[in-house]
Design a protein that fits this description.
- Keywords: Signal.
- The chain has 129 residues and is mainly α.
- The chain contains two helices and two strands.
- It has a two-stranded antiparallel sheet with strand order 1-2.
- A hairpin with a 5-residue loop joins β1 and β2.
């Protein structure tokens, strides 16, 4: 009885492996490609262009999906502004930092290595009264 059950299980395992290894049919790929192709009576999905050649939406605003219309994200983000348009210095994003980076050796994280004299902060001169 054990031999019969073992034989049936071995047969089922081999059959499942054989079914799993069948190659995918390439006719399905061709059908998908034909389905994606543009139909003769179908409108193109390309947006209208303005006089400068940039894509525009129907309402006339720039289409932000395109790189031409996206604002430059490399510029430093400014914090809150005053009514006159100048940056408000009370906020961290608007403060100008004076970064006096020593030119000596640095650690892996980019901070100066304080073991070297070039990186040590110079003590303030003592005032004599």
């Amino acid at each position: 009885m054990k031999k019969i059950v073992t034989g049936v299980l071995a047969f089922l395992m081999c059959a499942s492996i054989a079914i799993a290894q069948t190659p995918a049919s390439s006719s399905q790929d061709k059908q998908k490609a034909a389905h994606r192709a543009e139909k003769p009576g179908q409108k193109s999905q390309k947006p209208a262009l303005d006089s400068s050649g940039r894509p525009m939406k129907k309402d006339g605003t720039p289409d932000k999906r395109f790189k031409d219309n996206q604002e430059n994200k490399n510029e430093k983000a400014q914090g809150p502004m005053k009514k006159d348009g100048t940056p408000d210095k009370r906020f961290k994003g608007n403060k100008e930092t004076k970064e006096a980076k020593p030119e000596g050796p640095q650690k892996k994280d980019g901070t100066p290595d304080k073991r070297f004299k070039e990186n040590k902060e110079k003590p303030a001169a003592d005032k004599k009264a």
